[in-house]
Amino acid sequence: MAAESTPIDSRDSYPRPSEIKPGAIDVSQLDEPKYKKYQRLTSEFDKETRWNDSVHTKINKVDTLIQANVAPEHHHILQGKVTPYEKPVRLKQQFEPKGDTSRQSVQMHGEIWLEDQLAVSQLKNGLQRGQISTKRAKQ
C-alpha cells in the first residue's frame, strides 16, 4: 500500500490544550500562536479520523462481499483468516486447479467449442445447399 492509502492511527484521543501549553485546561488559556497550532492539531486529527473511518468502511465492504459470494458450505475454509487479503488468497489455494489441469481443461473446452462452431457452420452451409454432412448431425 502507498503511504497515502495507509490508515493513520497516530492518536487515540482528541488533542487537549495541555499538549500545546502545559497546564492549560481550556482553549481560552492559549495565546494566538498556540491557539493556531492547536487548531492545526485538531484539524489534522479530524482528517485522520475521517480517513481511517473511510478505509475501515471500505475494508468492511470488501469483507462483506467476500463472505456473500462464497457458498456457505465453503465458509469453513475462511476460518482464521482475518483480513480481506487473506481470504481470497486462501480461496485461491483451495480451488485453483493444480498443474496442467487448468491448461488441459481450457484446451478441451476450446476444442469442443471449435467442433461445435464447425458443426454449426457446416449445418448452415448444408441447409443452404440441401445437404448435411457432420458427425453430430447424423447422430
From the spread of the alpha carbons, the general shape counts as elongated
The number of helical segments is 4
H/E series, N to C?
HHHH
The residue ranges in which pLDDT falls below 50 over 5 or more consecutive positions are none
Number of domains: 2
Instruction: Please indicate the percent range of residues in DSSP E strands (runs of 2 or more).
Output: under 5%
Q: What is the mean predicted local confidence, pLDDT?
A: 82
By helix and strand content, what is the structural category?
mainly alpha
Q: Biggest sheet, in brief?
A: none
Helical proportion?
55-70%
Rg for CA atoms: 32 Å
Distance between the termini: 58 Å
DSSP strand count: 0
Overview of the structural elements:
It is a single chain. The protein is an all-alpha fold and 139 residues long. The protein has 2 domains: 3-96, no CATH class; 100-139. It is built from 4 helices and no strands. The protein has helices at residues 32-69, 86-95, 101-129, 135-138.
In short:
The protein is mostly helical and 139 residues long. The protein contains four helices and no strands.
Top keywords for this entry?
mainly alpha; elongated; 4 helices; 2 domains; 139 residues
Write the layout of secondary structure elements.
Blueprint: H1 32-69, H2 86-95, H3 101-129, H4 135-138
